[in-house]
Amino acid sequence: MLEVRDLEVAFGPVAPLSGVSFSLEKGETLGIVGESGSGKSLTAMSVMGLLPLSGGRITAGSIMFDGQDLTNLPEPAYRKLRGGRLGLITQNPMTSLDPLQKIGPQVDAVARLHLGMNASEARARTVEILGTLRIPEPGTICNRYPHQMSGGMKQRIVIAMALAADPDVLVADEPTTALDVTVQAQIIRLLDDLVKERDLSLVLITHDMSVVAQTCDKVVVMYAGRAIEHGPVEAIFDAPQHPYTQALIGCIPKGLSDDEHLTGIPGTVPNVLNYPKGCPFHPRCTQAKEICATDVPAFVQHGNGQAACHFPGAPQ
Amino acid sequence: MTNLLEVRNLSKQFKSPGGPFRKARAMHAVNDVSFDLPKGRVVGVVGESGCGKSTLARLILRLIEPTDGTLRFDGEDLRAKSPAQMRKLRANMQMVFQDPYSAIDPRYTISRAVMEPFVVQDRKPASKPEEEVAALLRMVGLDPGLASSFPHQISGGQKQRVGIARALALRPQLLVLDEPTASLDVSVQAQIISLLEQLRDDLGLTYLFISHDLSLVRYFCDEILVMYLGRVVEALPDTDLPARHPYTATLMDSTFAPDPKLRRIITPLEGEVPSPFDLPPGCAFADRCPRAAAICRTETPVLSSDGGHAVACHNPI
Amino acid sequence: MSSMTGIAARWMAGYRGTPVSRAFGSWLGKIAGGFLVLLVLTAIFAPWITPFDYAAQDLTNGNAPPGWPHLLGTDQFGRDVLSRVIYGARTSLSVSATAIAISITAGMTLGAAAGYFGGFFERAVMTVVDLTWSFPDILIALIFVAIIGPGLTSTTFAIAIAYLAQFTRLTRAQIVRLKRETFIEATINLGAKPHHILLKHLLPNAIAPVIVVGMLAIGDGIVLEATLGFFGLGAQPPTPSWGAMMSSGTAQLFLSPWVIIFPGVVVAVTVIAVNLFGDELIRALDIRDRIRGS
C-alpha cells in the first residue's frame, strides 16, 4: 500500500532525515517510534507532502503509494490525495480545529471536497461517522463549537475528519500525547477497531514504546534522522538487535519485580545541526568500536527484521 | 518511623468572582486531603490533569495559601509561620519543577543559578564558591565545565539536573518532585529517575513524587496516593497491592505494558474527567463508574482504612 | 519536529552574534543604522564640523540659494542653513533622548511595581497612567508651557509624559508574563525576598523590549519636538531646532524654499531610519510577540 525507500529530506544545507525505509500492507499498523528530533514527525510530513510548507524538500528516495511515486507529484494532485485517500491525524486536537466554525461544517467540508457530495449528503455522512466513533448524539455535536468540547472529544472529531473521505492510509502523529491516560486508552481502542473494521493501513507515530507494543504489527525505530531498526513488533521487543532499541526498551518501567533498575541512556539526543558521523548512536552506545564513529552501518537481516548496526545483537 | 510531613484536611478553593457577564464560581482544587510522609520514604501522588496534584504540591510548600487544614513539617506547624520564618524554612523543603526549560532564569549562568540559594538565604557555602558549584554539578552527574554556560546552551535533561542541584544546594530534608520527567525524552527520563534514586540513598532524602504516569510511580515510589477531582480516592501503602477503587483500577487498565505478548483488549472507561467547578454531591467518579449505586450520587464516600490500605468508595472492589 | 525545523530556520536565518550585530546584518539595517550613527556623531562633533557659526547673521546675504560657500543656502537673516541643521540635530536628539530616558525610568518603575504587587495599587496606577494617554500630546505640552513657559524644559517634560503610558503598560505586561514563569516560582521557593525577585529576575528580563520601544519612541519624540518648535512652544531663538527652522521658513516658502525643505527632509529621514532600525532590532531580538502583547 505504502512503501518508502531511502527517503532523504533537506532544509537548506541541513539534512534532518536520511535513509528511511519502510513498507505497509493493507490492514496493517506500523509504528514509527523515536525520541524528540528523531525525524519521526518529519517522516509523516514527507508522506503527506507537507514539507514545502516549512521550507523542506525531498532530496532522495521514493514514496510509493498504491503504485504511484509521491515524491514528484505536483501539488494539485497531492491536494486530492491528502485528506482523501491519505488521512492525517495531528498531534494537538486543541489547535487542529477551526475555533470559529461549528463541528458539522468542518467535517462536512472533507466529504464535499473529496467525494463531491452535496451539503445534505455530506452531513448525513458526518453524522454516520461520528456515530461509528462512539460520539454520543452526533446530530447535536454538529452544532457545537470546538471550545465546547473536551480534549478527547476534539481528537475524535479530528479522527472523523481524517476518515470522512474513506482513506486507505491513515497517518496519526502522536494522536494521544496531549491526552490523559484514560482518554488515551479510549482513542487507542478506537484506532484499533477502525483498522480492523475498515481494513485501513495505519501509520502510528509515537514516542511511547508501550503504545507500540499494544497496537502495532510492525515497528520502525528512528534515531537522529535515521531508521535504525525495523521489523515485526514481537521481534523488536523480544530480541532487539540495535543497542539503541535495547536501551530504549530498558528505559520503561515494567513493574514486574522490585529489583528492576532503570538506568537510562547516557548523554542526550543529538541536535539536527550536529548529527554524529558514522552510526548516529555511537557517542551514547556502550558497544561502540572505532568503525562506528566512521562508517554508517548498513542494514543487517535478522529474522524478519533488519538493524543498522555494525555489531547487531550484542548485549548492552 | 517519624513523620517528616503531616497533612490534615488540606483544602484549597479557588473562587472566580462574578461580574456583569459571568456568574461567580468556586472550584475545589484540593478537597480534604490528609496523609503522612514518613522520613526517608517516597510517596507518589498520581492522577490525571485537573485532579489537583500540582496544587497539592504547592499547598504543602505554601507557594499557594491553603483555604483550610493543617500542615506539620518536622513537628512544626507550617501555617503558623510568618513570611520571614517561612522564607528561612524553605531551605529545608525544596521542589523540582515539571518544565526544566523555564525553571532557570535565561539570563543566569549555570553557576549563578546553582549559587542563588546561598545568596537568597544569606548563607556561606562550606567551600569556595567555585568548588561548591563544581561539587553540586558533579553530585547531579554534570560536567563542572558547564558552570559558565547559559540555560539555552544545554539540553533539557541537563537543565533538569541543574534544577535538582539548585534544589539540593541547601541540603533540604524534603524534595517535592512535580512531574520532573514529564517534558523529557524517555531515555533521559530514565537517567533522571535513576539519579533521584541514588540521591535519596546518598543524602537520606524524603520525596513527594507527583506524576500522571502510574507505571513510573509504581516503579519509583514506596506508597501511592491516587487523586481524582481534588480528593484522594485511594491510598496504597504498597505499590504491588491490587486496586480497590474503580478509578484506580481504570488507571491501571489504561496503562500498557511495553511487551506485545501482554497485549490485551482494552475496555476503556467512557467519558472524561468532569469540570471541577460546582461539583454535584456524592462521589465525583459516580458518572463514569461501572460499580456506581444510588448512594454514590448522594453521599460523598470518606477515605476509610483497612490495615493501611485506604479507599474512598461505597462499593470497593 | 516543530522545534527542529525552528532550529534549522534560525540557523539558516543566520541566528548568530549579538542582537545589535544581527540588526546590522540586513542591508536595511546597515543603511538605517549607518545613518543614525552618522547623525549622532554629527550632533556630538557639531562645533568642529559646522562651516559657520549657526547664530552669525549676515543680513547682506539673506535668502541665498544653495551654493558656495553656503552649501544649503542661508535664511532671511543670512544664517548658514547647513550649520543650523547640524546644530538642530543636537537639540532634537538631546531633547528627545532625555525625554524618553525620563519616560522609561518613570514608566519602568511604575509598571514594574504595578505588575508585581497587583491588586488595588495596580488598578490605581494604571488608571492614572491611562489618563495621561487620553490627552493629546500638544495639550500636555501647552499645560507645561503655561506652567513653566515655552522652552526646551517644557518640551522635554511634555514628550516624557506623552510616552509614559506606553512604557508603563509595556513593563507591566512583561512583569505579569514573567511572574508566571517557573523560575520565579522556583526562586520564591528558595526563600527569596520580593526585592530579590524584582531586581534580580523580573526587571533584567523585562528590559530588552522596553529599550527597543524606547528607541522607536525617540523617533516619535523628534517629530513631537519639531512640532512644538514649529508652533513656537519649543526651542527659543537663537537655539536652532528643526521645527523652529521650518516655522521661520514658512514666511519665505516660495522665495527661499531651501530654508524649510532641508530641516524637513532631515526630520523625515531620521524618523524613517529610527523606525527601520528599530524593526531590525525587534527581529534580531525575537521579541515581536512581547511588544505586541502589551
Descriptive account of the structure:
The complex is a heterotrimer of chains A (about 325), B (about 325) and C (about 290). Helix content of chain A is about 35%, strand content about 25%. By secondary structure, chain A is α/β, with parallel strands linked by helices. An 8-stranded mixed beta sheet of chain A has the order 6-7-8-3-9-10-12-11, sandwiched between helices. In chain A, strands 2-1-4-5 form a 4-stranded antiparallel beta sheet, covered by helices on one side. The mean pLDDT of chain A is about 85. Chain B is an alpha/beta fold and about 325 residues long. In chain B, about 25% of the residues lie in helices and about 25% in strands. Chain B contains 8 helices and 12 strands. In chain B, the strands form 2 sheets. An 8-stranded mixed beta sheet of chain B has the order 6-7-8-3-9-10-12-11, with helices on both faces. In chain B, a hairpin with a 2-residue loop joins strand 9 and strand 10. In chain B, helix 3 packs parallel to helix 5 (about 155-170). The mean pLDDT of chain B is about 90. Chain C is an all-alpha fold and about 290 residues long. Chain C has a single domain (about 20-45, about 70-290), classed as MetI-like fold (Orthogonal Bundle). Chain C contains 13 helices and no strands. The longest helix of chain C has about 35 residues, at about 80-115. The two termini of chain C are about 30 Å apart. Chains in contact: A-B, A-C, B-C.
TL;DR of this structure?
The complex is a heterotrimer of chains A (316), B (317) and C (294). By secondary structure, chain A is of the alpha/beta class. Chain A contains 11 helices and 12 strands.
**Main sheet of chain B?**
8 strands, mixed
Could you tell me the number of beta strands of chain C?
0
What's the level 1 CATH class of chain B? Alpha Beta
Just name the CATH architecture of chain B: 3-Layer(aba) Sandwich
Task: Write down the overall geometry of chain C.
Answer: elongated
Number of domains of chain C: 1
Percent of residues in helices of chain C: over 70%
Instruction: State the assembly state of the protein chains.
Output: heterotrimer
Q: Give the C-level CATH assignment of chain C.
A: Mainly Alpha
Provide the gyration radius of chain B in Å.
Answer: 21 Å
- Could you give the distance between the termini of chain B? 30 Å
The number of distinct helices of chain B, counting runs of at least 4 residues, comes to 8
Average per-residue pLDDT of chain C, rounded, comes to 86
Biggest sheet character of chain C: none
Strand content of chain C: under 5%
Named CATH topology of chain C: MetI-like fold
Taken from the alpha-carbon principal axes, the silhouette of chain B is globular
